[in-house]
Amino acid sequence: MDKRLALLLGLCVTACGGAAEPVGEVDTAFKLIGPDHKVVVEAYDDPQVEGVTCYVSRARTGGISGALGLAEDKAEASIACRQVGPIRIARPLPQREEVYAERQSILFKRLRVVRMVDAKRNTLIYLTYSDKLIDGSPQNAVTAVPVDRATPIPVK
Prior knowledge:
Mean pLDDT: 79
Shape: elongated
């Protein structure tokens, strides 16, 4: 991938809520020219909740169009968020907030992760889905991170 394009994509991901860290990948289909189709697993830390990391797995299209950044990745994604350390929430959280977004095609398609607060159960809910300017996908995945009752989640 062109270094300038990779830098631009990295800046966009950072500006959209946080940078994903690659954890691993597996090939799903061999491509003679260009990279293989893959399922990638990426980790990112919730920027407002210290001690929570989310792992997102999703398809990444290979081939020539994938290598050039012109392919449209599939809408399917899976998410698992876990407590990886003491949970600290510095300021009140909105009831619903997008915490991560990444482009999945050259035009108008994005993978999104939204955090919701279930105050009654003192739990953080993370939802991942894909949207498109005209027609998004109903495919989604959800995960929950319960927070110890001794640490009430502050809500705006």
